[in-house]
Amino acid sequence: MTLTTVRERSSPNHQRRSGSARIDMLVLHYTGMKTAGEAIERLCDPAARVSAHYVIEENGAIWRLVPESLQAFHAGRSCWTGGSDLNDVSIGIEIVNPGHEWGYRLFPETQMAAVEHLCRDLIARHPIPPHRIVGHSDIAPDRKSDPGELFDWSRLARADIGIWPPPAADLPQRRGRGIGVIERAAALADLAVIGYCVTGGDETVVVAAFQRRFRPQRWDGRLDAETAQRLAEVRAAYDRAR
Ligand SMILES: [Zn+2]
Question: Would the pTM count as exceeding 0.85?
Answer without folding.
Answer: yes
